[in-house]
Amino acid sequence: MGGVHLICPYCNANNDKVIDSRESDAARVVRRRRECLACSKRFTTYERVEQTARLVVIKRDGSRAPFLRDNVMRGIMAAFGKRPIPEDVKEHIVDQIEEELHREFDREVESRVVGERVMQKLKDLDEVAYIRFASEYRKFKNVDDLLLELAQLQNRVKDVKNQQKLF
Ligand SMILES: [Zn+2]
């Protein structure tokens, strides 16, 4: 290992050096910090061991499709839009979701569960992204659902504010 060069996302040069290498998720993911030798900018890459036991997602209409990390990432990217959330954080959320689902489900998982897991993570991180994702994902059945969701969110914000006063 170590001899692999990747295309720099800034200048497209194919000449970089690894400056930091870290394993996570029980060594299934290796995060590498790289520096482009042409333009000196730094970027991060993630190497992951492909899951041999593939998870299958059961969609609402009953059809099945392989669980794809990229789909989760796309949903998260759409939810964040232009919110100032670092790429690392997004990657980390997807890692966590992927890990949890593989740990908790043997072969199959309902798409609803995947969506709820994403919502959970977004809720903790960025409320705007959460609302955006939730409204898109759940297609709120009616206004009451949306209001209930917002009310719960309000309460949570209050909780956080109260907690902050304690410190
Ligand atoms: Zn470069």
Q: How many DSSP H or I helices?
A: 5
Q: Output the structural class.
A: alpha+beta
Q: Note poorly predicted spans.
A: none
- What small molecules does the structure contain? zinc ion
Instruction: Outline the biggest β-sheet.
Output: 3 strands, antiparallel
Which sequence of SSEs, written as H and E, runs from N to C? EEEEEHHEHHH
The helical percent reads: 40-55%
- Quaternary state of this entry equals single chain
How many domains comprise the coordinates? 2
Shape: globular
> On the 0-100 scale, what is the average pLDDT?
80
Strand order of the largest sheet: 1-2-3
- Strand percentage: 15-25%
Task: Describe the 3D structure.
The longest helix has 24 residues, at 143-166. This protein has helices spanning 69-80, 87-104, 111-125, 127-138, 143-166; strands at 16-24, 29-36, 42-48, 56-58, 64-66, 108-110. With 167 residues, it is α+β, with helices and mostly antiparallel strands. It folds into 2 domains: 1-49, no CATH class; 51-140, no CATH class. The protein has a 3-stranded antiparallel sheet with strand order 1-2-3, with no helix packed on it. A hairpin with a 5-residue loop joins strand 4 and strand 5 (64-66). The chain has 5 helices and 6 strands; from the N terminus they run E-E-E-E-E-H-H-E-H-H-H. The protein starts with 15 loop residues before the first strand and ends with a helix. Bound molecules: zinc ion.
